[in-house]
Amino acid sequence: MQNLRSFLIKLFLGVTIPLVLLNTVIDSLFIRYTNAFSESKSLMISGFFGVTAVKVVIFVLILYIFIRILTKRIQLENVAYNQEKTQLFATIAHDLKTPSTSVLGYAKLLLEEKNIDPQKERQMLETIYDKADQSNQMLELMLQYARLEGTDYPLHLESSDFSRLIREIVASHYAAFEEKKMELQIDVSNTPVKAMIDPLEFGRALHNILVNALSHNPAGTKILIQLRVGDQLELLIADSGKKLAKEFIPVMFDPFVQEDSSRSKTGTGLGLAITKQIIDKHNGTIQLVENISDYTKGFLIKLPK
Fold first, then answer.
1. Among residues 267, 266, 260, 269, which one has the least CA distance to residue 242?
2. Which residues 6+ apart lie within 8 Å of 193 measured at CB?
3. Which parts of the chain have pLDDT scores under 50?
4. 288: nearest Cα among 247, 232, 237
5. What pLDDT score was predicted for residue 222?
6. Which residues lie below 8 Å from residue 226, measured CB to CB, with a gap of 6+?
7. String of DSSP letters for 260-274
8. What pLDDT does 264 receive?
9. What is the pLDDT, as a whole number, of residue 263?
10. Of 122, 141, 220, 298, which has the maximum CB count within 10 A?
């Protein structure tokens, strides 16, 4: 949709500007014509109608070309959208089939086998529970993504202490960072920093970024969380982990996209897509920044004050 909007703006400017210039040229020629034959009213009238006819013909021609180009572009956008939707459904089916296959297999084994060793039975039940929980989390993320896609999804904005929210979300992940021996550097002032945000939704966005840093970086990685306050709020969450593949960067905020699709996936590829949606709905931006001093990459979030 964003690409189509950008195309329409460019097409409109590309048609309007030449049309205005052409209109100016025709008017200039008409003025010269009337000055040369000002003594003849009949020539002036015929000239006026002639110029008007030329303008109408040019306008209709340009309108026809505009509609043809626009129709062709909409057809291409529809094809791309349908292909994306088909791929999306296939990805959802694949991601849900993997855990459901394990659940069905172990459940059938428990039903058919007799005299199962209690320890083995418990292991099977734990696997069933874990896989069912994994499916439930996937469905919850998909539902959340679908809701955020809607234009009428409400945000409950309120004047909140942004710095406090950041510290609380980071604190909730301390145990996970310590377990992976990750070094945290937090540069967030204790002084309240007010922002109009939905604390629940924005907290979810920050949670997704931190989980992303935890999941896709090796043990011992350094993590920087820095809040800068100026004309706008700038939150940088950077790490010293591995660089991202160049082909992954342009699509990193697309749904169901993971950097290495060949590995056994432990997530849905929805975290960053949901994060971007939440930040967009706050009239903010998120972008990848690389080659930061002492860090390889990071996410820079900008919010209006």
1. 260
2. 161, 162, 163, 227, 229, 233
3. 261-265
4. 237
5. 95
6. 185, 186, 187, 188, 235, 236, 238
7. -TTSPP-S-S-HHHH
8. 42
9. 40
10. 298
